[in-house]
Write a structure and sequence with these properties.
The protein is of the alpha/beta class. The chain has two domains: 167 residues, Rossmann fold (3-Layer(aba) Sandwich), CATH 3.40.50; 133 residues, no CATH class. Helices cover 33% and strands 13% of the residues. The chain contains eleven helices and ten strands. An eight-stranded mixed sheet has the order 5-3-2-6-7-10-8-9, sandwiched between helices. It has a two-stranded parallel ribbon with strand order 1-4. A hairpin with a 4-residue loop joins strand 8 and strand 9. Helix 2 packs across helix 6 and helix 10 packs parallel to helix 11. The longest helix has 19 residues. The termini are far apart. Bound molecules: S-adenosylmethionine. The site of S-adenosylmethionine (SAM) has 24 residues, from helix 7.
Amino acid sequence: MASSSCKVAYKTTAINNRRYLGNKYRLIPFIKNVVDENCEGINVFADIFSGTGAVSSAFLDKRLITNDILYSNYICNLAWFSSERFSKQKIVDFILHYNSLDINDENYMTENFADTYFSREDCSKIGYIRQDIEDEFLAGVFNERERAILITSLLYAMDKIANTCGHYDAYRQGVEFDRHLELAVPMPKQNRRKNQCYNENANELVKRIQADLVYIDPPYNSRQYCDAYHLIENVARWQMPKVSGVARKPDRSALKSEYCTRQAEAAFEDLIEHIAARYILLSYNNMANKGNDRSNAKISDEVIMRVLEAKGTVEVFSESYKAFTTGKSNIEGNEERLFLCRCI
Ligand SMILES: C[S@@+](CC[C@H](N)C(=O)[O-])C[C@H]1O[C@@H](n2cnc3c(N)ncnc32)[C@H](O)[C@@H]1O
């Protein structure tokens, strides 16, 4: 592919230009405030259920450790936070090239998803671009971070036009596909902080890492993220599995989270026990026994407090920045709380 010699306009995209259940972008000022006002000497910040990476993006002055069980989130985290150098010009050139393509070939995407979440034509383009990123990477044209940035650009562009209400449990039948795939250039910063991005079960990872502060934002109800984002995950992994059912889902058994099941309290206890850090900061909302079965939080406040207090002293903050003491948490309405544990 030839490099663009004259200046061509292109769109850019930022970390929060993505729809993601439970993402904490809106809560960044609250989280940052609690950390800045209550935690000292934070050099290493670990975000071990990182999702989009929104919270990590507020701590770019720290060395970051990110982790998520979904490979698609790992790829986005690598794009935004990895310390590997990347060529912005190369990214721009490839994105302009991909946007200029007029493709209508059959591929894995057209065969399995034509006129479902995307039009047949957009499926053809998504499949072509994803394969091309892999081919160029294997040919040594991109390094890992450049590959991750281009996949991230593709995933964000898919999210913008998907015929869904933000997740992939269903698509609307018989719609006109009036928006078409257009990749934008992600704008991560170069950094020399030796950040690390992981893609594994947080309960295993904590046994090997050390951080000053570990931020924990697990799923809180029975809704599995691998179900909601199966198609984004499928394109990120690009292993082309068989899909089935109306929603066209692949086998996701290896990606199910214990935090969405009756094992959540045991998983949480095991996680906290193995954390090596001076501070633990937990985001958990107050929906225990409040909504229907699906929206009920899986870990009770009693268990959260018992487990954290076994590790240190605990203070709870509500979104309105009011701190209140142990055992007196106000649980009127649907509220996000931060549990700060100063580990002993
Ligand atoms: C509430 S979301 C995190 C949102 C994130 N803080 C953000 O701002 O985008 C929970 C995340 O935990 C991940 N997850 C679930 N179980 C996990 C596990 N056992 N280990 C690591 N990640 C897990 C999910 O894939 C999901 O991205």
